[in-house]
UniProtKB/TrEMBL annotation:
Protein name stated in the entry: mRNA export factor GLE1
Highest classification ranks of the organism: Eukaryota, Viridiplantae, Streptophyta, Embryophyta, Tracheophyta
Chief localization: nucleus
GO terms for biological process, alphabetical: poly(A)+ mRNA export from nucleus; protein transport
PANTHER family: GLE-1-RELATED, MRNA EXPORT FACTOR GLE1
Length: 680
C-alpha cells in the first residue's frame, strides 16, 4: 500500500464544501485524516481536548443549538430541520458515528489540487456550504495500517447542505472551542511553568538545606574538636597542677621531717648536756656527802674508841669486885635466809643487831642512806657506763656515718613491744641483728638499747614484764649489756640502787638542789611536781622488779631473783620510811613479790613481817595524810596475800585476739596502774 499523506482542510474549504464534492472519487480509494495544522503536543500535553469526537456528538450539539434558536425566535427560521441527521452506508445500512481519519496519497493529492481550485471557483458562486458529511468512509485510528484491502464505497455526498445561520453558528461554536482549548493550553502551560519553577525552587532550596546542613555539621565538628582540645588542655593543666602540688607537698614534708629530726637531735643533745650537768652536780653533792659521812664516821669511831676504853676501864674495876652469876643472852642474827652470812645479818641489823656495815648513822648529819655493797656495785656500773660513753663519743667523732638511724630503729622496736610471745620474740631477734650489724659499732647499739629501754618505761603504755623478757633474751647473748642497763636505771632512779638522800640545809643551797639530787627533772627552768616524780619512780622500780623475777627457759638471767632478794634486804636495812621509799617498796612487791615467794617461801615471809612490823609502823607514826593511801596499799598487799597471785602481764599471751583483748594502750595502762592508787 502506498504511503498516505494527511490532507489539511482549511476553514474556508469547510465553509464552501466544494473540496469535498470534488474529492469524492479520492475518498472512495483513500482514507482521509483530518489534522490541525500545528504541533500535536506541547511539553507532553495534547492540543486536542477531545480527540475521539464523533459525528453523532457534533449532530446532537447542532440540534441543541437549533432548538434554542427556534425557541428564542417568534418566527420560524428557514432550513429548520425536524429530523436528526443520520449516516448510511453504501448499501443503505445505518452506520454508527465514530471518529474518522482522512488520508490521501501524495500523487493523487497533486493531481486533484488543480481540479479542486477550478471547481472551488465555479461552485463558490452557486452555493456556500458550511458543513460536510461523510458516509460509508473507512475510519482508521492508526497510520500504520498495512492492509491492502480496498476502501469501502462511500456515498456521493459528504454532508447535507445546511443554511447560512447553521454554518455561522458552527463557525462560532468552533471558534469558541478553539478559544477554550487555547485557554486550557495556556493554563496548562502556566501550570507546567509554575510546577517547573516550583520544582526548581524546591531543588534549589533542598540543595541549600543540604549545604547548610553540611556546613552546620562541619561547624559542629570543628566545635567538637575545639572543645575536646580545650578539655585535653584543661585536663593536662589540672594534672600538671596536681603533680606540682604533690611535689611541693613532698618537699614540704621532707623539709619538715628534716627539721623535726634536727630538732629532735638538738633536744637530745641539749637533754644529754643537761643530764651530764645534773650528773656532775649529783656527783659533786654525793662527794660532799661522802666527805661529810667520812668525817662523821671518823668522829663516830673516835667516840666509839673512847666508849670502849671507858668500858674496859669499868670492866677492870668490876673485875676486882665479886663476879655476878647473871649473864646476857646475845640476840641471834641468823634468820635462815638464802644467804645466812649476808641477808640474815641484814635482817638482824634491821632489828637492831648492828652486824652489817652500812652508811646508816644515828646522828642528825647522816644524809646518805644505803648499804656499802650497794654503793660499791653502783659505782662499778656507773664507771663502766662512763667508759662506754667515752668510747662511743670518740667513735662518733672519728666516723663520718650517722648512727641516728640505728638509734631510732632501736627506739621504734622497743616502743612496739607488747605482751605476746610473738612480739617479744620478734623484737628480741631484730635487736640482736642490730647488735651484730658491722655497720654500727656494738657499743653504740648497746648504749642506745639501755637508754631507750629506761626512757620507754616512763610511758604509760609500756609493758614491764614484756620488756623484761626482751631484756633477758638480748642480754643472754650480750651479758655486758645487763650492767649497762642497770647502771642507766640506777642513774635515772636512786631507789633502784637502793639508796636515799635526806635533806639538810647545810648540805644543799635550796630545796630545788635537793630535788635535783633525788632525780627530779627540770624542764623550761621549772622542777617537775612531786606527783610526776613519784609516777616516774614507780615506773622505774616496776621495770626493775619485773626484770629480776623474769625467767626464760634456756636463757640465763644474770640479774635475777638473787639480786632482787639482795635489793629488798638492803632496802629494809638502810632506807628510812617515807613517801619515796614507800612508793618504791610497793612497786617492787607488786612486780617481784610473786617470784620471790615462789623461790624463798618462808624466808620471804620473814622479810614481809619486817615490812609489816617496822616499815608500816614507822609510816603510821608519822601521821602524814599523803602517806595514808600508800600505807593502806602495802597493808592490803600483805593482808590479802597478793604475793600468792601471779600479777597480770607476767605470763606472755600466745596472740592478741580482738574478741578477748582490749586495745594495747588501754591494756598497758590498766596493767601498769592496776595496783596504784591516787597517793601521789
Amino acid at each position: 500500500m502506498d504511503h498516505l499523506n494527511p490532507i489539511h482542510i482549511t476553514r474556508e474549504e469547510i465553509k464552501s464544501g466544494t473540496t469535498v464534492k470534488k474529492d469524492r472519487n479520492i475518498l472512495k480509494k483513500e482514507v482521509v485524516k483530518l489534522q490541525i495544522p500545528c504541533p500535536q503536543s506541547v511539553n507532553g500535553v495534547g492540543l486536542e481536548p477531545d480527540p475521539d469526537w464523533s459525528f453523532r456528538t457534533l449532530l446532537s450539539e447542532l440540534d441543541a443549538l437549533e432548538k434554542k434558536l427556534n425557541i428564542s425566535s417568534s418566527v420560524p427560521l428557514p432550513f429548520t430541520k425536524t429530523k436528526s441527521r443520520e449516516f448510511y452506508g453504501e448499501k443503505g445500512t445505518k452506520r454508527t458515528s465514530k471518529a474518522f481519519v482522512m488520508k490521501i496519497s501524495d500523487e493523487e493529492f497533486e493531481d486533484s489540487e488543480s481540479e479542486n481550485e477550478e471547481v472551488r471557483d465555479h461552485d463558490r458562486s452557486l452555493v456556500k456550504v458550511a458543513r460536510f458529511n461523510c458516509d460509508e468512509v473507512y475510519f482508521s485510528s492508526s497510520d500504520d495500517d498495512s492492509d491492502d484491502k480496498p476502501c469501502l464505497d462511500i456515498q456521493p455526498y459528504l454532508m447535507n447542505e445546511v443554511g447560512l445561520v447553521e454554518s455561522a453558528l458552527y463557525e462560532l461554536t468552533h471558534e469558541h472551542q478553539l478559544g477554550v482549548k487555547e485557554e486550557i493550553r495556556n493554563a496548562i502551560s502556566a501550570l507546567e511553568t509554575d510546577l517547573t519553577n516550583e520544582s526548581e525552587e524546591s531543588s534549589s532550596a533542598h540543595t541549600k538545606v543540604e549545604k547548610y546542613r553540611e556546613a552546620r555539621r562541619e561547624v559542629e565538628r570543628k566545635f567538637d574538636v575545639q572543645y575536646q582540645r580545650r578539655i585535653a588542655e584543661g585536663l593536662d593543666n589540672h594534672l600538671t597542677a596536681v603533680q606540682r602540688d604533690h611535689e611541693l607537698k613532698s618537699q614540704i614534708e621532707e623539709r619538715r621531717i628534716r627539721n623535726d629530726a634536727a630538732h629532735e637531735e638538738a633536744k637530745r643533745r641539749e637533754k644529754a648536756l643537761q643530764e651530764e650537768r645534773l650528773r656532775q652536780e649529783k656527783a659533786k653533792a654525793e662527794a660532799e656527802v661522802q666527805a661529810k659521812l667520812k668525817a662523821e664516821e671518823a668522829n663516830r669511831i673516835a667516840l666509839e674508841a673512847k666508849r670502849i676504853a671507858a668500858k674496859e676501864a669499868a670492866e677492870k674495876e668490876a673485875a676486882k669486885a665479886p663476879k655476878a652469876p647473871t649473864s646476857e643472852v646475845p640476840q641471834t642474827a641468823a634468820l635462815g635466809g638464802p644467804n645466812a652470812t649476808s641477808s640474815g645479818a641484814l635482817i638482824a641489823q634491821s632489828k637492831g643487831s648492828g652486824n652489817d656495815k652500812t652508811n646508816k648513822s644515828q646522828s642528825a648529819g647522816n644524809m646518805l642512806r644505803a648499804a656499802d655493797s650497794a654503793l660499791n656495785l653502783e659505782r662499778e656500773r656507773l664507771q663502766k657506763l662512763k667508759e662506754l660513753e667515752g668510747i662511743n663519743q670518740s667513735l662518733r667523732s672519728s666516723s663520718n656515718e650517722d648512727f641516728g638511724s640505728t638509734e631510732r630503729h632501736i627506739a621504734r622496736l622497743i616502743r612496739q613491744i607488747r605482751g605476746t610471745k610473738d612480739s617479744v620474740t620478734t623484737k628480741a631477734t631484730e635487736l640482736v641483728k642490730i647488735f651484730n650489724n658491722p655497720r654500727c659499732p656494738q657499743t653504740i647499739s648497746i648504749a642506745s638499747f639501755a637508754k631507750k629501754v629506761v626512757s620507754h618505761c616512763e610511758s604509760p603504755d609500756s609493758a614491764p614484764f614484756a620488756c623484761g623478757h626482751v631484756i633477758i633474751l638480748v642480754t643472754s647473748q650480750f651479758p655486758q649489756a645487763m650492767d649497762l642497763l642497770v647502771a642507766e636505771l640506777q642513774r635515772a632512779c636512786i631507789y633502784t640502787v637502793p639508796k636515799h638522800i635526806s635533806y639538810s640545809k647545810s648540805a644543799f643551797e635550796s630545796k630545788e638542789a635537793y630535788w635535783k639530787v633525788l632525780g627530779y627533772q627540770e624542764e623550761d627552768g621549772k622542777i617537775e611536781s612531786k606527783k610526776d616524780y613519784l609516777k616516774r619512780l614507780e615506773s622505774y622500780v616496776r621495770l626493775y622488779g619485773a626484770l629480776v623475777q623474769t625467767e626464760v627457759a634456756g636463757r640465763q638471767n644474770v640479774h635475777g631473783l638473787k639480786e632482787g632478794w639482795a635489793w629488798l634486804a638492803r632496802f629494809l636495812n638502810a632506807l628510812p620510811a617515807n613517801i619515796y621509799t614507800a612508793v618504791a617498796l610497793n612497786a617492787f612487791l607488786q612486780t617481784a613479790g610473786f617470784g620471790l615467794y615462789r623461790k624463798y617461801k618462808s624466808q620471804f615471809m620473814k622479810l614481809l613481817n619486817i615490812v609489816s612490823e617496822n616499815f608500816l609502823n614507822t609510816l603510821r607514826s608519822q601521821e602524814d595524810p599523803e602517806l595514808r593511801p600508800i600505807t593502806a596499799d602495802i597493808q592490803s598487799y600483805l593482808e590479802d596475800k597478793k604475793f600468792l597471785v601471779e600479777p597480770e602481764g607476767r605470763s606472755l599471751q600466745g596472740s592478741l585476739l580482738s574478741s578477748v583483748m582490749v586495745p594495747d594502750s588501754d591494756y598497758q595502762a590498766q596493767s601498769f596502774y592496776q595496783h596504784s592508787r591516787n597517793y601521789f
